Amino acid sequence: MRKVIGNFKMHQTPTQTKEYLLQFMSKVDGTKNEVVLCLPATSLTTAKYMVSGSNIKLGGQNICDDDHAKTTGEISGDMLKDAGAEYVIVGHSERRTKFKENFRTNNKKIKLAFKNRLKVILCVGENLTERNTLKMLESLKIQIEESLKGIYENELERVVIAYEPIWAIGSGKLPTNKELDRAVKAIRKVITDDFSEKAGQSIQIVYGGSLDAKNVNQYLKLNTINGFLVGGSCLDPLEFATIVKEV
Ligand code: PGA
Q: Measured from the CB, is residue 226 less than 6 Å from ligand 1?
């Protein structure tokens, strides 16, 4: 079983989500994979009633890093949970770039997600400069260690690490199998060193960045990854259903 996560970003009104699900759900009925739709917060409640009883799970795309009610424009873990989310994305590179989030805020968000019984999809990935200067592994180590500071080993079963090289997001550029394998093994090593061998082997890792129904097959032989995170290509229900069925 693989995990296939769709990150809808700022796409879809609740009405469009309803139309999307009407097409998508019948196409993925019976899949052995776990499907997680990370929808805009305003679409979650609509989706919650539609996916109830199916193998489709829901996720939010962000959670506030403090739980003070006086935070205009933010969304809390209990709101996401009640609206139907089982997962929440933390630390997507777009949040880091546009909203100045960092690994300290990730850490707070993860703790608040756990407090609200949400699972976390933690995004990590190197930028182009780090890649070109061979600082990729160092960068991944810092990102993971800072984000997971103070997290207990038994909580890692509630974490999915999404390896998303920043240069691959929305760019049409993909890592080779060898590059991806190397990064995933490096992530497992960080978890092994900081927690245990067992944790390093069992942590769920998915790849994200420029995936589509045509190129996703190239990674199917990699048994080091547990699934995929799809951005742009999840917006077409038929294309995303093809991805879910093929992997
Ligand atoms: P992409 O986005 O698949 O469009 O590259 C992935 C992401 O941003 O999570």
A: no
